[in-house]
Design a protein that fits this description.
The protein is α+β, with helices and mostly antiparallel strands. The protein contains 13 helices and 17 strands. Strand 8 and strand 9 form a beta hairpin. It is globular, with a radius of gyration of 23 Å. It starts with a helix and ends in a 12-residue tail after the last helix.
Length: 439
């Protein structure tokens, strides 16, 4: 398949020479970590754990990581003069995936495990790593990059923008009430192993119609279902499925209960995953959770900012909803990316795009037709009489999935447009983008 080629092509790519030479001039060596050698992946994992403020990894954790992450292209920056020269002072991982766009799909470079040791900050290491790896991704046929972040202020300067927000819900179960539909199917408990098998197929069905989603990365399913050997407290997880009257399985959810020993009817449910491929499965699973005995509160995160559940509970004030940035997007190839999505309006715009890393800048004419397809042509000068938009690659990336209106960005001073409302109509999409997990 094309995707398999992209994966191998990206994973095995040689290192960007500008990056390696710039780091070498600073006395640092950047190299790929050998996925087949624990002698290399173990110290790399230690550096990542330290970067994310975790403790040292034990042998079970190291082996589980080694067994599940060979698909990731792992880079380490090494300081030969450090007391532990085998432990990198910076880490970077990426892999080729598919990003769902409004009405389309696009190969993408997913980025994770980005760390710089506190001993080596303020030396431009991350900037060189990021720029080098983004150039490599583009050369290897990946027109866009994506990541989820622990610190939200880092990536804007590299051209990334939050493009799909995530909502966290805290539901007061007694207040909520159910006014949603009666789902015709049934809910049943299944084992964690059964649930894992169901979820893989269901997520593949769902993500293809949901802008902002990517393929679930390797190893993540085992983490959700507690089916990896180093899983902690896996025995506390419960899994339910939704089955249609015809016997098809269209939904699955994973949750855990924390008992309130002082007030047994105030126990807490934390839902870590809920995948529903149909509206009926969605209604069936949510009604199950809102009908549980002895539960006072339900917590769930990584939801869409436009959940149907909001219109299925009798008291909307029963839900406390917190919205935060989640899936970040960074366009590397403007024509390829904009031509891969669909549009609901036929129109023509001229875009002047500025890129802080010099990868995707230029002036482009975006023309859409009545069937929703687009052509994107680089031009030296914007044509006369075509509405003009001047923006950074981050702002263009932010509107790509339909998650923010260009009118909002114009009012925030983030883009300059002759007619922001016209731009907004072109990039609008009926469903809010989302990403249902971290990576």
């Amino acid at each position: 398949s094309i995707m398999t080629d992209h994966r191998r092509h990206h994973h095995d790519a040689s290192l960007d020479r500008t990056m390696t030479e710039a780091l070498a001039a600073d006395g640092l060596e950047v190299r790929r970590v050998d996925d087949t050698a624990r002698a290399e992946t173990d110290p790399w994992l230690e550096a990542v754990a330290r970067g994310f403020l975790d403790g040292e990894r034990n042998d079970d954790q190291r082996q589980a990581f080694f067994d599940r992450t060979a698909y990731r292209r792992k880079l380490g920056v090494f300081d030969a003069s450090a007391p532990q020269p085998e432990v990198p002072v910076a880490t970077f991982a990426s892999w080729a995936t598919d990003l769902t766009l409004p009405g389309g799909m696009l190969p993408a470079c997913a980025i994770s495990s980005v760390t710089v040791a506190p001993t080596h900050r303020r030396r431009g290491i991350l900037r060189r790593l990021m720029a080098g790896e983004l150039r490599t991704a583009l050369e290897r046929g990946l027109p866009v990059a994506v990541l989820t972040v622990s610190e939200s202020t880092i990536y804007g300067r590299f051209g990334f923008a939050p493009a799909a927000a995530a909502a966290q819900w805290k539901i007061d179960v007694r207040r909520a009430g159910w006014i949603g539909p009666d789902a015709p199917g049934r809910i049943d408990f299944v084992t964690r192993e059964q649930g894992r098998g169901i979820a893989v197929e269901l997520h593949e069905r769902v993500r293809r119609d949901s802008p902002g989603e990517i393929e679930m990365p390797g190893g993540h399913w085992d983490r959700y279902f507690g089916t990896r050997p180093d899983a902690e407290k896996a025995d506390q997880l419960r899994v339910v499925q939704y089955r249609t009257p015809a016997g098809g399985i269209d939904g699955v959810a994973v949750y855990r209960v924390t008992e309130d020993h002082a007030e047994f009817t105030a126990s807490v449910v934390d839902i870590s995953l809920l995948v529903a491929a149909t509206d009926e499965a969605y209604a069936g699973l949510w009604r199950f959770f809102l009908s549980l005995d002895l539960i006072g509160t339900i917590n769930v995160s990584e939801l869409s900012t436009a959940e149907p559940l909001w219109w299925m509970i009798a008291d909307q004030r029963a839900a406390t909803i917190t919205v935060r940035d989640h899936q970040y997007v960074r366009i590397l190839d403007v024509p390829a990316t904009l031509a891969a999505r669909r549009y609901d309006v036929a129109d023509t715009l001229a875009l002047e795009v500025a890129d802080p890393l010099g990868i995707a800048d230029g002036t482009f004419v975006l023309a859409t037709d009545a069937d929703g397809t687009a052509t994107v042509d680089p031009v030296d000068d914007p044509p006369v009489g075509v509405p003009f938009v001047r923006l950074g690659v981050a702002e263009l990336s932010a509107v790509l999935l339909g998650g923010v209106s260009p009118v909002t960005l114009a009012r925030a001073g983030r883009i300059a447009a002759d007619d922001p409302a016209r731009v907004a109509r072109l990039f609008a999409w009926p469903t809010a983008p989302r990403l249902s997990f971290w990576y």
